[in-house]
Amino acid sequence: MKRILFLLISALMGIASHAQLLTWTPDFPKEDDPAQTLVITMDASKGNRGLLNYTSDVYVHIGVITNVGTGWQHTPFTWATTAAASKATPLGNNKWQFTITGTLRGFFGITNAAERIQKIGILFRSGDGNTVQRNADGSDMYIPVYTTSLAVRFSAPLMQPTLESTPEPITKNIGDNITLTATSNKSATLKLFLNGNLVQTTTGTTITVSPALTASGTQTVLVEANDGTETKTQTFSFFVAGTTNVAPLPAGVKAGINYEAGNTSVTLVLYAPNKNRVSLIGDFPGGSWAEQSQFTMNKTPDGTTWWIRITGLTAGTEYAFQYLVDGTLRIADPYAEKILDPNDQFISATTYPGLKPYPTGTTGIVSVLQTAAPGYTWTVNNFARPDKRSLVIYELLLRDFVAAHDWKTLKDTLGYLKRLGINAIEVLPFNEFEGNDSWGYNSDFYFAPDKYYGTKNSLKEFIDVCHANGIAVIMDIVLNHSYGPSPLARLYWDAANNRPAADNPWYNPVQPHAFGFGDDFNHESAVTKSFFNRVLQHWITEYKIDGYRLDFTKGLTQKPSTKDATFSAYDASRIAILNGYYNAIKSVDPNTYVILEHFADNTEEKELANNGMMLWGNLNYNYTEAAMGYVQNSNFDWGIYTTRNWTTPHLVTYMESHDEERIMYKTLQFGNASGSYNTKNLPIALQRVELDAAFFFTIPGPKMIWQFGELGYDQSVNRCTDGTINNNCRLTPKPIRWDYLQDPNRKKVYDVFSNLIKLRFHPLYKEAFISGRIDRSLGAAFKWIKVSSGDTSHLVVVGNFDVNAGSGTVTFPSAGTWYDYFTNTTITATGAAQNISLQPGEYHVYVNRNVNNNTTTPVLTIPTSGTTLEAKLYPNPLTQRFVIEMYVPQSGTTTIELFNALGQYAGKLQFSFLQKGKHMVPLNRGPLNLAKGQYYIKISTKNESKVLGAFIQ
Fold this sequence. Notes:
Blueprint: H1 2-17, E1 22-25, E2 37-43, E3 58-66, E4 89-92, E5 95-101, H2 104-108, E6 117-126, E7 132-133, E8 141-144, E9 152-156, E10 172-173, E11 180-194, E12 197-209, E13 217-226, E14 231-241, E15 256-259, E16 266-271, E17 278-282, E18 298-299, E19 305-310, E20 318-325, E21 329-331, E22 339-340, E23 366-370, E24 392-396, H3 398-401, H4 407-412, H5 414-420, E25 424-427, H6 456-468, E26 472-478, E27 481-482, H7 487-491, E28 493-494, E29 499-500, E30 519-520, H8 526-543, E31 547-551, H9 564-568, H10 572-588, E32 593-596, H11 602-610, E33 614-618, H12 620-628, E34 651-654, H13 663-670, E35 673-674, E36 677-678, H14 682-694, E37 703-706, H15 744-761, H16 766-771, E38 773-777, E39 782-789, E40 793-800, E41 806-811, E42 816-820, E43 825-829, E44 833-838, E45 843-847, E46 857-858, E47 870-874, E48 881-888, E49 892-900, E50 905-913, E51 917-924, E52 933-940, E53 945-952
Parallel strand pairs: 10-14, 24-25, 24-37, 25-26, 26-31, 31-32, 32-33, 33-34, 34-37, 43-46
Antiparallel strand pairs: 1-2, 2-5, 3-6, 4-5, 6-7, 6-8, 9-11, 11-12, 11-13, 13-14, 15-16, 16-19, 17-20, 18-19, 20-21, 20-23, 22-23, 27-30, 28-29, 35-36, 38-39, 39-40, 40-45, 41-44, 42-43, 42-45, 47-48, 48-51, 49-50, 49-52, 52-53
Helix pairs in contact: 8-10, 12-13, 12-14, 13-14, 14-15
């Protein structure tokens, strides 16, 4: 008897020594016991480890599942708040505790007598709600609630605190024993059954037994409790592995989903060396989300690869499936082109019509296969891509660009971008990423377009329409790292250290270089290279994308470093890795763009540029300083490829990108001022963006614009959803400000961007902006640029970046008449050094060819008394673009109204002038769609008005 008691105690101690994610006392909490104190303990070393080693305060989000309604109800605390009553008690050793004293009904405020609590839902989180402890699969945690009736439940094997509690993963083979323990809340006759066979019976509140497992396949365990009045049961199933079949891989198949002729069968292939068994689970014919012997996959003789052929499929039907590895790990196919995620519930039917529901009965990410899937018929099959040297790229995050965040709406917005004049769109990563609300750099599935943006064919239609409009599509993609849900990481995972395991074929356990992100890929690994070669070829062949922007390519190395200087130094191995990917891309389409976010040693970047790749050139700091009116750090010279001693114009310069603080935000917050000229004033700040643009687009080489920069977007990159500024809010959604188009001052910025881009593509100047000669003086406040193509087309840009009036000298490349591109006035160049005086923020773009084909007017001087409103209009008759030159005797709002010959109102603009004096207002009559005839333009200030006659031929 002592021996039996000792064995029983040892078994129970063994069970207790295996800590669970969630434990609670009492074992059977009731909803209406006033003497009850429910103590809930969470172990952050288990589950998803969201709070592992977390050192700040922890709070709970808690609610109940009842017999009334659906989902969590009666939640006493608001998410992302820090109510004192919601604070958890730290126990040390990664454990936290939360206590509820008294009745659960009272705590949750349930007053409806017919409403009964079935389960408590609970999450432990950081105060801001960004860090959350959940189950391993990301699901919510639950605690069952009982009545005074008889109840029984298993305590061994350990149960997961999911909505429908199931055992933690069990791995057993024939001949093994399994320890089974069940407890009841009352003394009862307890019986344990294995596959319907009684293996133990006892009287009391606890029963335990360790039967031997004699057969393979699904095993069913049931406990029965009978107290003479009631009988209650609980059951669960698990799988016992049999013998694995060894067979060579069928000819012609590769890792992933291999569709076969006839559309009724597929062969699925998973590369997973050193695993003991892999089974297929899912909703395919005969399948289920539990392991079954007939769907155990074959293993290749070398032990690296698993495969199975599935038949009896219905053409056009979507089937969800996972690989169950060693009986414990559920993963989706890394090569799947569509996945299902519990977060899919937040994707609307408008965004993704007919989305297959996430299946019940499993956890984690699920892959989808579909034979005879609906295809897309391309209308543009031979798109002529723009010359890489003349790209003007519009970078955007679909989530923050159109409120519907889908491809269809973005397609319908192309008119706006086409009018702007860009010839390429670069979209932040749109392969599947973790969650929905993201920039996309937390990638997890590389072959599947993220459903939060719409369907596969909707993406194809967007690309097709872009091509029909002469616009290339560039995909931002991350080869450096991935995040948690990636099946490649989860296949070989070091749970103790919460990182890829040392034997992971694709990843480093820890990045070898100075810094990085997420789970770092082993970039010298042959399987990593093979995987990404397929990824890069896939999007070109399947979606006809025109190029890639590769994120953080400096990280694509195994060279150790502990500081950025070493990390950034010339690295021949990194060049070889990038050349390998570039060659894989060129093997399917030699004209594909490849743009690197590299920021490494200039000699390395020059070599990569010479190999045909393009590289990001970050000039945000310099252009921001210039806009703010701080001259010392406003030199743009590093944005010129020849300054870097490059021989190819493959430098993609930008004033803003998704990573950088917005120029307008910094100018409005920190801009310089002198007297009444203050760059923090909105109209002046917008004029400073125009000034920057004049010295950005006129530098030869490819350019990039960040979304809404052409409208002077002034919301901080670190703006929180409540309007505050915090570095932790960098990735949160930002306001979508299409209303900026209605502001004349902002619309003028758009027009300046658009006209500068059009100049870049003008036949007389196009070559100049690809690889023309450039001379410049960019160090002082008075800056100038001269760009020439051959001996015929020349351009001179002058601008004053100071906050005070100033002057400087510039020598035009040739004497004679030059044309002011924006005002259609002329200036006479002497061919010698000429002094030009400019107001703060004033700029001019002069060309030696009349590219506007307009009747031009020499620079005018308005005669003025200095005390009255004066104005002139030219050219008149009005051409497509015309100028109103005016003298306003005081600062304030000036209104320009247009009337036809009958006095009927035809349009209005308003401008805020912060200084009295001469102002030139370039206008475009195209959007007004005016008929021929006589018109009147009324110009009004606070105290007076003036009417000008205008004529349209």
